[in-house]
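job 3f2a | input accepted
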Amino acid sequence: MVNLNIDFLIRSSIEDIIGNLDSFFKSLLQEIKSYLNLNIVSLKVQFTFREEKKRVNYQKINFLNIGVKRTQKSNSLKISILMTCKKFLRLILLKEAYKCFLPPILRENEVVNIFLNQKVEIDLQDSEYIEDWKEIKRKYIINYEFIEAEYDRLEKFLRQEGTENKPSPFQFFFSFLRKNVDLIKDTKEEFSLFEKKGFYDKIFEAYTRKYSKYPDEILETIRIIAEIFYKVKSYRSMLDYQRYFKEYKESGFIQTKLSLKRFNENMQWIKDNTYIAPSYRVN
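job 3f2a | predicted structure (283 res):
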């Protein structure tokens, strides 16, 4: 299993990166190519820097595009980086390098970019200015309800390492997207919190079913939790799901041999030991 090694990016000063930008970006692409075991999706990337006298108003900028302006023509992408945001250059470069391995239709997708942003924060957790980046995210940009509900799960999911027998969740994420592009058809659409969560749940469930050695009862409980969630579109407490389980099993909506007692025990275990327990709340 190849590990991702980007120490060269973390150790280098912003000035050194600016002075050798193309070289740093090519090194990132090669490192990520080995890590993901995937080829780059054909794209020529050119970086430039621009000055802007006005102070950056983060409230009016999409956090996922801070400091960056993109212009794409066929297979050529020009990325203009705002000099006043140069302290975030490591995060910008790493994220843009990851995006070179995505199908073009998904590169500006909001839910995909939130996923990438979380991974970039983990990869660069020891680098300079990372806390400034996180503060901007918390203060101005990402919907607080979504952060509270999903970011802990995303981080726990993405921090898992791969082994010789299975990919890491992030490696799986790229192969999953390449095979399931139709899961997100409109890249310009604003996604509701429920739609964002539904997308991540699909990835969590697909990875868990393929690579996690959970007992059949746990997998069955995960399936039921997903069915209930998509039916009621909310999660406030475990007690609610116990009630839904009893109601939907009696009505025939849920077909299972699990008893209510076993469902409750399994759900508690999932909540305590995995990243896939429901966390979405509706006020």
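job 3f2a | The beta strands are 44-50, 68-73, 76-82.
job 3f2a | closed
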